[in-house]
Design goal:
The protein contains 13 helices and 17 strands. The strands form four sheets. The protein has a six-stranded mixed β-sheet with strand order 5-4-1-3-2-13, sandwiched between helices. A six-stranded parallel β-sheet has the order 8-7-6-9-10-11. The chain folds into two domains: about 180 residues, no CATH class; about 160 residues, Rossmann fold (3-Layer(aba) Sandwich), CATH 3.40.50. β7, α8 and β8 form a beta-alpha-beta unit. The longest helix is centred in the first third of the chain and has 18 residues. The protein is globular and about 60 Å long. By secondary structure, the chain is α/β, with parallel strands linked by helices.
Protein backbone atom coordinates (compact mmCIF):
# COMPACT_ATOMS: atom_id res chain seq x y z
CA UNK A 1 0.00 0.00 0.00
CA UNK A 2 1.23 3.45 -0.94
CA UNK A 3 0.55 5.86 1.93
CA UNK A 4 0.15 9.61 1.93
CA UNK A 5 0.27 12.60 4.24
CA UNK A 6 -1.12 16.07 3.92
CA UNK A 7 0.27 19.19 5.56
CA UNK A 8 -2.28 21.55 7.11
CA UNK A 9 -1.78 24.83 8.91
CA UNK A 10 -3.92 27.41 10.75
CA UNK A 11 -5.16 29.91 8.18
CA UNK A 12 -5.51 32.54 10.91
CA UNK A 13 -4.45 32.46 14.59
CA UNK A 14 -8.10 31.91 15.64
CA UNK A 15 -7.90 28.46 14.02
CA UNK A 16 -5.48 27.39 16.76
CA UNK A 17 -8.35 27.74 19.22
CA UNK A 18 -10.09 24.74 17.62
CA UNK A 19 -7.58 22.56 19.41
CA UNK A 20 -6.34 24.92 22.12
CA UNK A 21 -9.29 27.08 23.34
CA UNK A 22 -7.00 29.25 25.47
CA UNK A 23 -5.73 30.80 22.23
CA UNK A 24 -8.97 32.79 22.01
CA UNK A 25 -7.88 34.74 25.07
CA UNK A 26 -4.49 35.70 23.65
CA UNK A 27 -3.50 38.39 21.14
CA UNK A 28 -2.78 37.14 17.62
CA UNK A 29 0.82 38.31 17.85
CA UNK A 30 1.46 36.11 20.89
CA UNK A 31 -0.26 33.11 19.31
CA UNK A 32 1.90 33.50 16.18
CA UNK A 33 5.04 33.92 18.32
CA UNK A 34 4.35 30.61 20.02
CA UNK A 35 3.41 28.92 16.74
CA UNK A 36 6.70 29.93 15.11
CA UNK A 37 8.57 28.15 17.89
CA UNK A 38 6.41 25.02 17.92
CA UNK A 39 7.49 21.84 16.17
CA UNK A 40 5.48 20.29 13.34
CA UNK A 41 3.43 17.36 14.59
CA UNK A 42 0.96 14.67 13.60
CA UNK A 43 -2.63 15.94 13.72
CA UNK A 44 -4.58 12.78 12.89
CA UNK A 45 -4.58 9.48 11.06
CA UNK A 46 -6.74 9.11 7.95
CA UNK A 47 -8.30 5.72 7.19
CA UNK A 48 -10.93 4.20 4.94
CA UNK A 49 -9.96 5.64 1.54
CA UNK A 50 -11.08 2.94 -0.89
CA UNK A 51 -11.06 3.36 -4.66
CA UNK A 52 -13.81 2.17 -7.01
CA UNK A 53 -11.09 -0.15 -8.36
CA UNK A 54 -10.68 -1.78 -4.93
CA UNK A 55 -7.33 -0.14 -4.17
CA UNK A 56 -6.90 1.30 -0.69
CA UNK A 57 -4.71 3.86 0.99
CA UNK A 58 -4.30 5.53 4.36
CA UNK A 59 -2.43 8.53 5.61
CA UNK A 60 -2.02 11.38 8.07
CA UNK A 61 -2.63 15.05 8.55
CA UNK A 62 0.54 16.77 9.70
CA UNK A 63 0.39 20.24 11.22
CA UNK A 64 2.76 23.01 10.18
CA UNK A 65 2.39 25.63 12.96
CA UNK A 66 2.47 28.80 10.90
CA UNK A 67 -0.45 31.04 9.89
CA UNK A 68 -1.08 32.20 6.34
CA UNK A 69 0.39 35.59 7.17
CA UNK A 70 3.55 34.03 8.62
CA UNK A 71 4.01 31.80 5.58
CA UNK A 72 3.53 34.65 3.09
CA UNK A 73 5.03 37.64 4.89
CA UNK A 74 7.57 35.97 7.19
CA UNK A 75 11.18 35.02 6.49
CA UNK A 76 11.04 32.80 3.36
CA UNK A 77 13.84 30.55 4.59
CA UNK A 78 12.04 29.98 7.89
CA UNK A 79 8.77 29.21 6.10
CA UNK A 80 10.44 26.64 3.86
CA UNK A 81 12.23 25.11 6.85
CA UNK A 82 8.96 24.66 8.75
CA UNK A 83 7.25 23.03 5.77
CA UNK A 84 10.26 20.74 5.28
CA UNK A 85 10.07 19.87 8.98
CA UNK A 86 6.41 18.87 8.54
CA UNK A 87 7.25 16.83 5.43
CA UNK A 88 9.90 14.96 7.39
CA UNK A 89 7.34 14.14 10.07
CA UNK A 90 5.25 12.65 7.25
CA UNK A 91 8.26 10.71 6.05
CA UNK A 92 8.91 9.32 9.53
CA UNK A 93 5.27 8.23 9.79
CA UNK A 94 5.73 6.09 6.67
CA UNK A 95 4.12 8.28 4.02
CA UNK A 96 5.35 7.81 0.46
CA UNK A 97 3.92 11.09 -0.83
CA UNK A 98 3.01 14.32 0.94
CA UNK A 99 0.62 17.06 -0.16
CA UNK A 100 1.16 20.71 0.65
CA UNK A 101 -2.02 22.38 1.85
CA UNK A 102 -3.13 26.02 1.58
CA UNK A 103 -0.18 28.44 1.89
CA UNK A 104 2.41 25.70 2.44
CA UNK A 105 1.99 25.14 -1.32
CA UNK A 106 3.08 28.71 -2.05
CA UNK A 107 6.44 28.81 -0.28
CA UNK A 108 9.67 27.49 -1.73
CA UNK A 109 8.93 28.16 -5.40
CA UNK A 110 5.64 26.29 -5.41
CA UNK A 111 6.96 23.33 -3.41
CA UNK A 112 10.10 22.72 -5.47
CA UNK A 113 12.48 23.66 -2.64
CA UNK A 114 10.59 21.39 -0.26
CA UNK A 115 10.79 18.45 -2.68
CA UNK A 116 14.54 18.98 -3.01
CA UNK A 117 15.06 18.55 0.73
CA UNK A 118 12.98 15.44 1.53
CA UNK A 119 13.11 11.82 0.46
CA UNK A 120 9.40 11.37 -0.30
CA UNK A 121 7.32 12.61 -3.21
CA UNK A 122 5.68 16.03 -2.97
CA UNK A 123 2.66 17.61 -4.62
CA UNK A 124 0.72 20.82 -4.07
CA UNK A 125 -2.50 19.24 -5.32
CA UNK A 126 -2.98 22.20 -7.64
CA UNK A 127 -3.67 20.15 -10.77
CA UNK A 128 -6.82 18.59 -9.35
CA UNK A 129 -7.74 21.91 -7.76
CA UNK A 130 -7.83 23.41 -11.26
CA UNK A 131 -9.86 20.52 -12.65
CA UNK A 132 -12.50 20.77 -9.93
CA UNK A 133 -12.62 24.58 -10.07
CA UNK A 134 -13.47 24.49 -13.76
CA UNK A 135 -15.96 21.65 -13.31
CA UNK A 136 -17.63 23.46 -10.41
CA UNK A 137 -17.80 26.76 -12.27
CA UNK A 138 -19.41 25.17 -15.31
CA UNK A 139 -21.86 23.20 -13.18
CA UNK A 140 -22.84 26.37 -11.30
CA UNK A 141 -23.26 28.20 -14.61
CA UNK A 142 -25.60 25.46 -15.79
CA UNK A 143 -27.87 25.63 -12.73
CA UNK A 144 -27.90 29.44 -12.97
CA UNK A 145 -28.83 29.17 -16.67
CA UNK A 146 -25.70 30.99 -17.81
CA UNK A 147 -24.37 29.97 -21.22
CA UNK A 148 -20.54 30.10 -21.11
CA UNK A 149 -20.46 30.44 -24.89
CA UNK A 150 -22.17 33.82 -24.54
CA UNK A 151 -20.47 34.99 -21.36
CA UNK A 152 -17.58 37.04 -20.02
CA UNK A 153 -15.37 35.31 -17.48
CA UNK A 154 -12.94 37.00 -15.12
CA UNK A 155 -9.99 35.18 -13.54
CA UNK A 156 -8.47 36.83 -10.48
CA UNK A 157 -4.92 35.73 -9.80
CA UNK A 158 -4.60 34.86 -13.48
CA UNK A 159 -0.79 34.92 -13.51
CA UNK A 160 -0.47 32.43 -10.63
CA UNK A 161 0.02 28.71 -11.10
CA UNK A 162 -3.66 27.82 -10.64
CA UNK A 163 -5.12 30.95 -12.23
CA UNK A 164 -3.05 30.63 -15.38
CA UNK A 165 -4.25 27.10 -16.15
CA UNK A 166 -7.84 28.01 -15.24
CA UNK A 167 -7.57 30.82 -17.80
CA UNK A 168 -6.30 28.39 -20.46
CA UNK A 169 -9.21 26.02 -19.90
CA UNK A 170 -11.89 28.70 -19.70
CA UNK A 171 -10.65 30.60 -22.75
CA UNK A 172 -11.63 27.59 -24.83
CA UNK A 173 -15.26 27.94 -23.71
CA UNK A 174 -16.07 31.66 -23.56
CA UNK A 175 -15.97 34.53 -26.09
CA UNK A 176 -14.34 37.00 -23.67
CA UNK A 177 -11.96 36.54 -20.74
CA UNK A 178 -10.51 39.18 -18.43
CA UNK A 179 -7.25 38.33 -16.67
CA UNK A 180 -6.91 40.19 -13.38
CA UNK A 181 -3.76 40.45 -11.30
CA UNK A 182 -1.20 42.78 -9.78
CA UNK A 183 1.53 42.84 -12.43
CA UNK A 184 0.86 43.91 -16.00
CA UNK A 185 3.91 42.08 -17.38
CA UNK A 186 2.84 38.75 -15.90
CA UNK A 187 -0.72 39.19 -17.17
CA UNK A 188 0.53 40.08 -20.65
CA UNK A 189 2.51 36.84 -20.71
CA UNK A 190 -0.62 34.80 -19.95
CA UNK A 191 -2.61 36.81 -22.48
CA UNK A 192 -0.03 36.00 -25.15
CA UNK A 193 -0.40 32.29 -24.36
CA UNK A 194 -4.16 32.60 -24.95
CA UNK A 195 -3.86 34.43 -28.25
CA UNK A 196 -4.92 31.39 -30.25
CA UNK A 197 -7.83 30.40 -28.03
CA UNK A 198 -10.46 32.26 -30.03
CA UNK A 199 -11.54 34.32 -27.03
CA UNK A 200 -11.16 38.06 -26.72
CA UNK A 201 -8.49 38.38 -24.03
CA UNK A 202 -8.12 41.46 -21.84
CA UNK A 203 -5.93 42.24 -18.84
CA UNK A 204 -6.68 44.34 -15.77
CA UNK A 205 -5.03 45.30 -12.50
CA UNK A 206 -8.33 46.52 -11.03
CA UNK A 207 -10.79 43.93 -9.72
CA UNK A 208 -13.19 46.74 -8.81
CA UNK A 209 -13.40 47.84 -12.45
CA UNK A 210 -13.36 44.45 -14.17
CA UNK A 211 -15.28 42.00 -11.97
CA UNK A 212 -18.62 43.84 -12.52
CA UNK A 213 -18.33 43.00 -16.24
CA UNK A 214 -18.21 39.24 -15.65
CA UNK A 215 -20.96 36.64 -15.69
CA UNK A 216 -18.53 34.03 -14.34
CA UNK A 217 -15.69 34.74 -11.92
CA UNK A 218 -12.93 32.36 -10.84
CA UNK A 219 -10.79 33.78 -8.05
CA UNK A 220 -7.60 32.16 -6.85
CA UNK A 221 -5.33 34.85 -5.45
CA UNK A 222 -2.80 34.55 -2.64
CA UNK A 223 -4.25 37.59 -0.88
CA UNK A 224 -4.59 37.46 2.89
CA UNK A 225 -7.73 39.63 2.82
CA UNK A 226 -10.90 39.60 0.74
CA UNK A 227 -10.60 41.04 -2.77
CA UNK A 228 -14.22 40.71 -3.95
CA UNK A 229 -16.81 42.91 -2.25
CA UNK A 230 -20.62 42.93 -2.75
CA UNK A 231 -20.70 46.03 -4.93
CA UNK A 232 -18.42 44.40 -7.52
CA UNK A 233 -20.82 41.65 -8.61
CA UNK A 234 -23.50 41.87 -11.26
CA UNK A 235 -26.92 40.28 -10.53
CA UNK A 236 -26.94 36.58 -11.34
CA UNK A 237 -23.16 36.21 -11.43
CA UNK A 238 -21.41 32.97 -10.47
CA UNK A 239 -18.22 33.18 -8.43
CA UNK A 240 -15.98 30.18 -7.82
CA UNK A 241 -13.71 30.99 -4.87
CA UNK A 242 -10.73 28.64 -4.88
CA UNK A 243 -8.60 30.67 -2.48
CA UNK A 244 -7.99 30.02 1.22
CA UNK A 245 -8.39 32.38 3.02
CA UNK A 246 -11.42 33.28 0.94
CA UNK A 247 -11.13 35.94 -1.75
CA UNK A 248 -14.85 36.68 -1.44
CA UNK A 249 -15.83 38.93 1.43
CA UNK A 250 -18.24 37.55 4.02
CA UNK A 251 -20.30 40.68 3.26
CA UNK A 252 -21.29 39.06 -0.04
CA UNK A 253 -23.10 36.28 1.84
CA UNK A 254 -25.00 38.86 3.88
CA UNK A 255 -25.72 41.50 1.24
CA UNK A 256 -25.97 39.76 -2.15
CA UNK A 257 -28.74 37.19 -2.30
CA UNK A 258 -28.79 37.52 -6.10
CA UNK A 259 -25.40 35.93 -6.83
CA UNK A 260 -24.07 32.40 -6.43
CA UNK A 261 -20.72 32.03 -4.70
CA UNK A 262 -19.35 28.49 -4.61
CA UNK A 263 -16.33 27.01 -2.89
CA UNK A 264 -13.84 25.61 -5.34
CA UNK A 265 -12.54 22.11 -4.86
CA UNK A 266 -14.91 20.32 -2.45
CA UNK A 267 -14.51 16.64 -3.36
CA UNK A 268 -16.33 13.50 -2.21
CA UNK A 269 -13.80 10.82 -1.22
CA UNK A 270 -14.61 7.19 -2.10
CA UNK A 271 -14.85 4.63 0.69
CA UNK A 272 -15.63 5.16 4.36
CA UNK A 273 -12.97 7.78 4.96
CA UNK A 274 -12.31 8.89 8.53
CA UNK A 275 -10.24 12.07 8.78
CA UNK A 276 -10.38 12.27 12.60
CA UNK A 277 -9.90 16.02 12.27
CA UNK A 278 -12.41 18.81 11.69
CA UNK A 279 -11.27 21.13 8.89
CA UNK A 280 -14.75 22.53 8.24
CA UNK A 281 -16.14 20.06 5.68
CA UNK A 282 -18.90 17.44 6.08
CA UNK A 283 -17.87 13.79 6.62
CA UNK A 284 -16.35 12.20 3.54
CA UNK A 285 -15.54 15.51 1.82
CA UNK A 286 -12.08 17.02 1.35
CA UNK A 287 -10.35 19.75 -0.60
CA UNK A 288 -9.24 18.83 -4.11
CA UNK A 289 -5.58 19.34 -3.16
CA UNK A 290 -5.99 16.70 -0.44
CA UNK A 291 -7.77 14.43 -2.91
CA UNK A 292 -4.94 14.69 -5.45
CA UNK A 293 -2.52 13.31 -2.88
CA UNK A 294 -4.87 10.39 -2.19
CA UNK A 295 -5.40 9.70 -5.89
CA UNK A 296 -1.67 9.48 -6.53
CA UNK A 297 -1.31 7.14 -3.54
CA UNK A 298 -4.10 4.90 -4.86
CA UNK A 299 -2.31 4.82 -8.21
CA UNK A 300 0.92 3.83 -6.46
CA UNK A 301 2.55 6.90 -7.99
CA UNK A 302 4.84 8.20 -5.28
CA UNK A 303 6.29 10.89 -7.51
CA UNK A 304 6.54 14.67 -7.50
CA UNK A 305 3.47 15.93 -9.32
CA UNK A 306 2.05 19.46 -9.18
CA UNK A 307 5.08 21.58 -8.35
CA UNK A 308 6.34 25.01 -9.37
CA UNK A 309 4.71 28.11 -10.73
CA UNK A 310 3.65 26.66 -14.07
CA UNK A 311 1.25 23.74 -14.00
CA UNK A 312 0.95 21.49 -17.03
CA UNK A 313 -2.41 21.24 -18.78
CA UNK A 314 -1.82 17.57 -19.49
CA UNK A 315 -1.40 16.84 -15.78
CA UNK A 316 -4.67 18.62 -15.02
CA UNK A 317 -6.42 16.42 -17.56
CA UNK A 318 -4.61 13.30 -16.33
CA UNK A 319 -5.48 13.77 -12.65
CA UNK A 320 -9.11 14.48 -13.56
CA UNK A 321 -9.26 11.18 -15.45
CA UNK A 322 -7.61 9.32 -12.57
CA UNK A 323 -10.10 10.89 -10.15
CA UNK A 324 -12.99 9.57 -12.22
CA UNK A 325 -11.43 6.11 -12.36
CA UNK A 326 -11.06 5.91 -8.61
CA UNK A 327 -14.48 7.33 -7.80
CA UNK A 328 -13.65 10.88 -6.70
CA UNK A 329 -16.00 13.67 -7.72
CA UNK A 330 -17.42 17.06 -6.82
CA UNK A 331 -19.36 16.98 -3.58
CA UNK A 332 -22.19 19.10 -4.94
CA UNK A 333 -22.10 22.88 -4.78
CA UNK A 334 -21.14 24.55 -1.50
CA UNK A 335 -21.34 28.20 -0.54
CA UNK A 336 -19.81 29.66 2.62
CA UNK A 337 -19.52 26.19 4.18
CA UNK A 338 -23.09 25.15 3.38
CA UNK A 339 -24.57 22.92 0.70
CA UNK A 340 -26.44 24.82 -2.02
CA UNK A 341 -29.93 23.39 -2.35
CA UNK A 342 -32.15 23.68 -5.47
CA UNK A 343 -34.48 26.01 -3.55
CA UNK A 344 -31.55 28.35 -2.91
CA UNK A 345 -30.67 28.41 -6.60
CA UNK A 346 -34.28 29.23 -7.51
CA UNK A 347 -34.33 32.14 -5.04
CA UNK A 348 -31.02 33.52 -6.32
CA UNK A 349 -32.20 33.39 -9.93
CA UNK A 350 -35.49 35.12 -9.12
CA UNK A 351 -33.77 37.91 -7.20
CA UNK A 352 -31.22 38.33 -9.96
CA UNK A 353 -34.01 38.70 -12.54
CA UNK A 354 -35.71 41.36 -10.44
CA UNK A 355 -32.56 43.39 -9.90
CA UNK A 356 -31.44 43.12 -13.50
CA UNK A 357 -34.82 44.22 -14.84
CA UNK A 358 -35.09 47.84 -16.02
CA UNK A 359 -36.70 50.17 -13.53
Amino acid sequence: MTRFAFIVHPVVPDDVARKYPIARLLPDSLVEYVMARTAAKTVSRITGVRSATGAETEGWFVGCPLSSRQLVEGDPAHSVAKVVEAARVAEDLGADIVGLGAFTAVVGNGGIEVAEQVDIAVTTGNSYTVATAIEGTLRAAEVMEIDPAASTVAVLGASGSIGRVCAHLLAQRVPRIVLIGRRVEALEEVAAELSGSGAQVEISISAAESVPQADLVVTVTSALDAVIEPEMLRPGAVVCDVARPRDVSARVARERDDVLVIEGGAVAIPGDVQFNFDFGFPPGVAYACMAETMILALEGRAEDYSLGKRLELERVREIAALADRHGFGLAGLRSFERAVEPETIARIKERARRRAAPA
